[in-house]
Amino acid sequence: MQKGFSLTTSFRVYYMRLTLVGFSFLHFSLITDAQAECPLQLNPQRVVVRYGDSVAANCNTSVLHKGMGWEASEGAVPMTKNQSLITWRVSELKEWDIKPVCFINYKIGDEDQCPVELPVTVYKTPDSVFISVNHSGPMMEGEPYELQCDVHNVAPVQNLTVKWYKRQTLLHQTTFTDTSETPVNETVTLLIHPDRADDGAQYRCEAELDLGAEGPQPHPTISSKPLSITVYFKPIINETKLPSVVHVFRGYPEVLVCEAEGNPKPTISWSLGTNDTVHSTHSEKLNITESTPEDLYCTASNSVGRKTRHVKVSIQDISISFVNHSGPVIVGKQYELQCFIQNVDPSKSVVVRWYKLSQTNSTDTTKTPVRSTSKLQISPNKTDDGAQYWCEAEGTQNYRTMSSEHLSITVHYKPIINEIKLPSTVPVFRGYPEVLVCEAEGNPKPTISWSLGTNDTVHSTHSEKLNITESTPEDLYCTASNSVGRKTRHVKVVLKEDYLPLIAGLIAVIVAFISVIFIFIFSIYYKTAKMGHYSLKDAKPSAQNGNIAQNGKHNPIPMKKLSQSNILA
User: Fold this and answer.
1) How far apart, in Å, are the Cα atoms of 248 and each of 167, 399, 401?
2) Tens digit of each residue's pLDDT (9 = 90 or more) over 359-399
3) How far apart are CA 318 and CA 339, in angstroms?
4) pTM, rounded to two decimals
5) Do residues 115 and 141 both lie within one domain?
6) H-run or E-run covering 192
7) Which of 468, 475, 473, 470 is nearest to 495 (CA)?
8) What does the pLDDT look like over 203-223, one tens digit per residue?
């Protein structure tokens, strides 16, 4: 029992000493950190200056000192004892790597002087930005070409970003890791594969210096002159204007139009099924009748390549067409189709059936003269885009059943903006940019434009995205428009604060406060409950323990805590 009591007492003493050492170390660290802080304030704390411009910065203190000054290769200020604010000033800064230091002499630990360096960034915009291409003359569609951007005499290069644009669209950007502070020349390349849509496009590159919050705003930017490119591509024949099957009614000539797009402009030639050329000119038209051979070929050719379209001529006695209309139809409007039947026996009845896709839509039964028409009213909707209509006639002369060609319709409708992807209210947290997506359905494909609350257009392109930040105006408008109409969606930008860092800091303070309170209460409890004075008066020795008094669970010895007055007595 004596050995156990000694170990317990030793552990308690060791724990108390360890706690005291911890508190002493914490107290010493706080004092050391406070002494190590240099009592100087710089204003501004960082300087960004254009090469050759003037610059100034203040250094002040609120403590007594033995002297303070500026050390610098330009604009040094000798040590002075009678001032608390001194200014470093250079009227024309022409040193790229200058590092001015403000110092103060006063007792700080074992040191008599503490310095504070002023970060200085000296910048220079490029003398020129030039764009070029490793090729002369027109470019060929799909072939690779390398654009080159030369930036001359710029500093510092680590703050430089070179951006590539096609028209107003950002294609790519390049940053640099070189830490050189003096002006350098940089060359950046961009590989492109132009297509026919790029014919006449303008490329340019921009050199932008991002010098931080202390630098000029907006960022200094130098742009190259635009580089316009010419793209050659082989012909594409317009298959809408020249279908693969052409129906010709007896006694009614037709005019075929072979229209081709290409660069250089294609030459059009027509040939019969025997490959004999019957027409070769820039003219796109060819007259055909019921005597024209069944197979025709239109060939469009230029210096890049050639394209041939095969046309089959079908002699018909029945046709389908619009009444007083050509081209696409508009949703919500009413149109009339007619089925024209030729060479009908007037003594017989004719049954005309109308079809849409593969389902019978309506039936018209009538007696007709030699030339007869049957009409159908339609009101197309957007789901009818690409639908096919045709008519069939039964009981006509020489035919049991005769079917017209299929008439495909193109349905145009005004834009519909996807309100799920673009809600009416968008929250934006400070420091966290958001991307809005304005997606619209329509035919023809809608053009998307964004505008501020002032209706000033800030983005107009087929791109559907717009980056927003806390500086974006409260009211935004996305407008989707095509040849049929337009639709505008109002979006309200709501700025919200991010309280997560504040909450995390508050929790850390509360945890630290509770820890200090716990240690304080434990130390008081330990001193009062575990280290008091006790009296062994009237204690009875125990024979089984070698006449050693004990205070265990068996044979307890009455003991009482001595008060302050008992100790003095």
Assistant:
1) 47, 17, 18
2) 445 444 444 433 467 889 999 998 888 899 988 877 645 44
3) 7
4) 0.52
5) no
6) strand 184-192
7) 470
8) 999 999 999 999 999 999 999
